[in-house]
């Protein structure tokens, strides 16, 4: 078919295996969400019709990846699949050394323990829950240096993940470069709504950190999606292949943590990638204590093979265009329906503006958590809160952190759902929006110490 943007497009794959799903009755959904304490994480998957909780480990693998799984070398040491993975990372990302981990959290733990000392400060372009917690457990304090536009869900800035260079340099001058172990840079910033950082901004961050001899550690979970936005939005990159943009992004950093369960299209796995050989040797030694031998970390050989193939597929032009395109499709439908969402539409999900949808609920009434529960009740759609519950408590005062953004994330797994599923989701969101004034809030019923959004339970007020 000719490349005509005015004509309909289809997913660049065809389906050869299906997993049946069903929508249980309204009465059953009411019982299920009440038993789950109004926390969508505690629902059983069999009770969910369309699962938009996360894109982490929920994507569909390709026939080539499944074929690669059959080539798993499960040797305890020196697995052939490790070397295939190492080669793929060096080819597409450019990092010299890799340490495989069970998922991104393992890499976050290692880099935090290896680089952060008590009393350090870690600047970054908006926090992510697990990243920030690992930094705090290592004795550091996360400092948000993202541009102000990122905290405004209605601002149309095309690169809301950009670093405010003045904020960053002011922090370095105030605390001293020796108290900044590294700058934490995420591509496609999750908590901002899947928003990208521009290549120009990243180059300026690199120039500034070079001035003070501070490394950059890259959270590259969704780097291909960020690269696609650079191709679409940044002057000079419109004709550059996504894979080349990905490689350039990585070249501006000193190392990376990767949850391969997102961009790289696998159900489990991750790695720590480093250019510094001495730091790599320390990480190699550390992984044996916490994950597994340095040639498998927390992964089976078959999973490393699927990951090596997934890295290649993640930078395919047709794949990334369709992947982000499906997210844009849902977002544009909701905008046309008048539903308040984070704009511009991000890379991996559509983020509903719960503050705007439920303005009669204060943040103490947990509007995003409430909205996520209501979406499940309406049509069996599972989504995720990204607001005051996810933000946790101030470790010094014990009070809630109150983020500017109070969001519900409709996260689209890769290669899983059709456009018809997106239509069902949009209609459900619209239905809930239309009866928003009748919705009442929630209160905490149980709260764990760490990462409370995973396991907290709530009750109706």
UniProtKB/TrEMBL annotation:
- Record's keyword annotation contains Nucleotide-binding: no
Q: Which residues carry this modification: N6-(pyridoxal phosphate)lysine?
A: 262
The biological process GO terms on file are: tyrosine metabolic process
Question: EC class of this enzyme?
Answer: lyase
Reactions catalysed, as given in the entry: L-tyrosine + H2O = phenol + pyruvate + NH4(+)
Recall the GO molecular function terms of this protein's record: tyrosine phenol-lyase activity
Name the source's superkingdom.
Answer: Bacteria
Q: Which residues form the Aromatic amino acid beta-eliminating lyase/threonine aldolase domain?
A: 51-427
- Which Gene3D superfamilies does its entry note? Aspartate Aminotransferase, domain 1, Type I PLP-dependent aspartate aminotransferase-like (Major domain)
Task: Extract the coiled-coil ranges from the record.
Answer: none
Q: Which cofactor does it need?
A: pyridoxal 5'-phosphate
For this UniProt record, the keywords arranged alphabetically read as follows: Lyase, Pyridoxal phosphate
* The enzyme's E.C. designation: 4.1.99.2
Query: NCBIfam families annotated for this entry?
Result: PRK13238.1, tyr_phenol_ly
> Which family is this sequence assigned to?
Belongs to the beta-eliminating lyase family.
Q: How does it assemble?
A: Homotetramer.
Q: Could you identify this protein by its name? A: Tyrosine phenol-lyase
């Amino acid at each position: 078919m000719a490349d005509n943007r005015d004509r309909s497009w289809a997913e660049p794959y065809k389906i050869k295996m299906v997993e049946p799903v069903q929508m249980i009755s309204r009465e059953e959904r009411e019982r299920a969400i009440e038993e789950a304490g109004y926390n969508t994480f505690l629902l059983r998957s069999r009770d969910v019709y369309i699962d938009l909780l996360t894109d982490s480990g929920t994507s569909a693998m390709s026939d080539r990846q499944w074929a690669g799984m059959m080539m798993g070398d499960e040797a305890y040491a020196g697995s052939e699949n490790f070397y295939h993975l190492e080669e793929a990372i060096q080819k597409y990302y450019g990092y010299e050394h890799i340490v495989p981990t069970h998922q991104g959290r393992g890499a976050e733990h290692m880099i935090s323990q290896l680089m952060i000392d008590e009393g350090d400060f870690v600047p970054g372009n908006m926090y992510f829950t697990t990243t920030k917690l690992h930094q705090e457990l290592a004795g550091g304090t996360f400092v948000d240096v993202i541009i102000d536009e990122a905290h405004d869900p209605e601002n149309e800035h095309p690169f809301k993940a950009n670093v405010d260079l003045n904020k960053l340099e002011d922090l370095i001058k105030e605390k001293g470069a020796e108290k900044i172990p590294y700058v934490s840079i995420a591509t496609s910033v999750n908590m901002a709504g899947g928003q990208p950082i521009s290549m120009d901004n990243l180059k300026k961050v690199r120039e500034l950190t070079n001035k003070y001899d501070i490394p950059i550690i890259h959270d590259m979970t969704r780097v291909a999606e960020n690269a696609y936005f650079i191709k679409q939005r940044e002057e000079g990159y419109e004709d550059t292949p996504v894979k080349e943009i990905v490689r350039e992004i990585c070249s501006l950093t000193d190392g990376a943590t990767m949850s391969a369960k997102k961009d790289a299209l696998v159900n489990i796995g991750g790695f720590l990638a480093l250019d510094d050989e001495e730091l790599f040797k320390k990480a190699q030694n550390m992984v044996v204590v916490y994950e597994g031998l340095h040639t498998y970390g927390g992964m089976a050989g078959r999973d490393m093979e699927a990951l090596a193939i997934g890295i290649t597929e993640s930078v395919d032009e047709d794949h990334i265009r369709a992947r982000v395109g499906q997210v844009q499709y849902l977002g544009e439908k909701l905008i046309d329906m008048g539903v308040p969402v984070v704009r511009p539409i991000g890379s991996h999900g559509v983020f509903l503006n719960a503050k705007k949808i439920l303005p009669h609920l204060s943040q103490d009434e947990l509007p995003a958590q409430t909205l996520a529960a209501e979406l499940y009740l309406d049509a069996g759609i599972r989504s995720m809160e990204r607001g005051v519950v996810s933000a946790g408590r101030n470790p010094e005062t014990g009070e809630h952190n109150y983020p500017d953004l109070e969001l519900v994330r409709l996260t689209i797994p890769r290669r899983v759902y059709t456009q018809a599923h997106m239509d069902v989701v949009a209609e459900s969101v619209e239905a809930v929006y239309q009866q928003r004034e009748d919705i009442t809030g929630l209160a905490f019923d149980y709260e764990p110490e760490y990462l409370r959004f995973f396991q907290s339970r709530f009750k109706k007020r």
